[in-house]
Specification:
By secondary structure, the chain is mainly alpha-helical. The protein contains 2 helices and 2 strands. The protein has helices at about 5-40, 60-75, and strands at about 40, 55. A two-stranded antiparallel sheet has the order 1-2. The protein is elongated. It starts with 6 loop residues before the first helix and ends in a 6-residue tail after the last helix.
């Protein structure tokens, strides 16, 4: 059950991190447009909100999509 730190496993881990970053970075503009379209934005009120302008609030969706894509691509064939 312990994962061995071989060169192949480390390289696979680094590639999966790079893949997740690239997918998240490329999906983020589409998710941002979707957030504006459906009104999922944070409107500053001067009390609790720290932003000075309206900010989209669906960045977690881009991270989730990146996770699913990366997990699908790099899934282990061993069961």
């Amino acid at each position: 059950m312990f994962i061995e730190f071989t060169l192949e496993n480390v390289a696979r881990g680094i590639l999966s991190l790079i893949c997740a970053f690239l997918v998240s970075y490329s999906v983020l503009p589409f998710v941002s447009k979707l957030a504006w379209k459906i009104g999922a934005v944070d409107i500053p009120d001067g009390k609790r909100r720290m932003h000075s302008e309206v900010i989209p609030r669906m960045g977690g969706l881009a991270i989730f999509i990146a996770y699913v894509v990366t997990a699908t691509i790099f899934r282990s064939e061993e069961h």
